[in-house]
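C-alpha coordinates please, single chain.
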Amino acid sequence: MRLDPRDSRWNRDGGSERFEGGETVGALKIVAIVLIAGGIIGLVYGGFTYTKSTHEAKLGPFEMSIKDKETVNIPVWAGVVAIVAGGVLLFVPSKS
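Here you go.
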Protein backbone atom coordinates (compact mmCIF):
# COMPACT_ATOMS: atom_id res chain seq x y z
CA MET A 1 0.00 0.00 0.00
CA ARG A 2 1.43 3.36 -1.03
CA LEU A 3 0.64 6.35 1.15
CA ASP A 4 0.18 9.77 -0.37
CA PRO A 5 1.53 12.76 1.65
CA ARG A 6 -1.75 14.57 0.99
CA ASP A 7 -3.71 11.69 2.52
CA SER A 8 -5.07 12.38 6.02
CA ARG A 9 -3.67 9.04 7.28
CA TRP A 10 -0.10 10.21 6.69
CA ASN A 11 1.60 13.12 8.45
CA ARG A 12 4.99 14.15 9.75
CA ASP A 13 5.59 15.28 13.31
CA GLY A 14 8.85 15.81 15.14
CA GLY A 15 11.11 13.71 12.92
CA SER A 16 8.90 10.64 12.87
CA GLU A 17 6.48 9.41 10.27
CA ARG A 18 3.02 8.43 11.43
CA PHE A 19 1.07 5.85 9.44
CA GLU A 20 -2.42 4.42 9.88
CA GLY A 21 -2.85 2.69 13.17
CA GLY A 22 -0.69 5.27 14.96
CA GLU A 23 2.61 3.44 14.38
CA THR A 24 5.67 5.69 14.36
CA VAL A 25 9.08 5.13 12.83
CA GLY A 26 11.40 7.53 14.63
CA ALA A 27 14.95 8.50 13.81
CA LEU A 28 16.16 6.42 16.77
CA LYS A 29 14.60 3.26 15.34
CA ILE A 30 16.14 3.93 11.94
CA VAL A 31 19.59 4.38 13.53
CA ALA A 32 19.06 1.12 15.44
CA ILE A 33 18.23 -0.78 12.26
CA VAL A 34 21.25 0.71 10.45
CA LEU A 35 23.52 -0.28 13.37
CA ILE A 36 22.22 -3.84 13.38
CA ALA A 37 22.58 -4.16 9.60
CA GLY A 38 26.07 -2.64 9.67
CA GLY A 39 27.14 -4.97 12.48
CA ILE A 40 25.88 -8.03 10.61
CA ILE A 41 27.61 -6.94 7.40
CA GLY A 42 30.82 -6.27 9.35
CA LEU A 43 30.72 -9.76 10.87
CA VAL A 44 29.96 -11.47 7.56
CA TYR A 45 32.58 -9.70 5.41
CA GLY A 46 35.17 -8.88 8.07
CA GLY A 47 36.49 -5.87 6.16
CA PHE A 48 36.67 -4.17 2.80
CA THR A 49 39.28 -3.43 0.15
CA TYR A 50 39.77 -0.28 -1.88
CA THR A 51 42.26 0.83 -4.53
CA LYS A 52 44.40 3.90 -3.94
CA SER A 53 46.46 5.61 -6.64
CA THR A 54 49.86 6.41 -5.11
CA HIS A 55 52.18 7.56 -7.92
CA GLU A 56 51.65 8.97 -11.39
CA ALA A 57 54.23 9.92 -14.00
CA LYS A 58 53.99 11.36 -17.50
CA LEU A 59 56.94 10.93 -19.84
CA GLY A 60 55.98 12.38 -23.19
CA PRO A 61 53.21 10.23 -24.65
CA PHE A 62 53.59 7.61 -21.91
CA GLU A 63 51.68 7.67 -18.66
CA MET A 64 52.40 5.49 -15.65
CA SER A 65 50.46 5.09 -12.45
CA ILE A 66 50.87 2.82 -9.47
CA LYS A 67 47.76 1.66 -7.67
CA ASP A 68 47.87 -0.03 -4.30
CA LYS A 69 45.13 -2.15 -2.82
CA GLU A 70 44.42 -1.24 0.77
CA THR A 71 42.46 -3.51 3.10
CA VAL A 72 40.56 -2.29 6.14
CA ASN A 73 39.70 -5.03 8.61
CA ILE A 74 36.62 -4.61 10.78
CA PRO A 75 37.18 -6.17 14.20
CA VAL A 76 34.66 -8.76 15.36
CA TRP A 77 34.08 -6.81 18.58
CA ALA A 78 33.01 -3.74 16.56
CA GLY A 79 30.36 -5.77 14.71
CA VAL A 80 29.08 -7.27 17.96
CA VAL A 81 28.98 -3.87 19.69
CA ALA A 82 27.05 -2.38 16.75
CA ILE A 83 24.48 -5.21 16.86
CA VAL A 84 24.05 -4.94 20.64
CA ALA A 85 23.79 -1.13 20.55
CA GLY A 86 21.24 -1.34 17.73
CA GLY A 87 19.24 -3.91 19.67
CA VAL A 88 19.21 -1.72 22.78
CA LEU A 89 18.13 1.34 20.77
CA LEU A 90 15.43 -0.68 19.03
CA PHE A 91 13.74 -1.52 22.33
CA VAL A 92 14.03 1.94 23.93
CA PRO A 93 10.47 3.24 24.32
CA SER A 94 9.65 6.23 22.13
CA LYS A 95 8.31 9.50 23.55
CA SER A 96 5.18 9.54 21.38
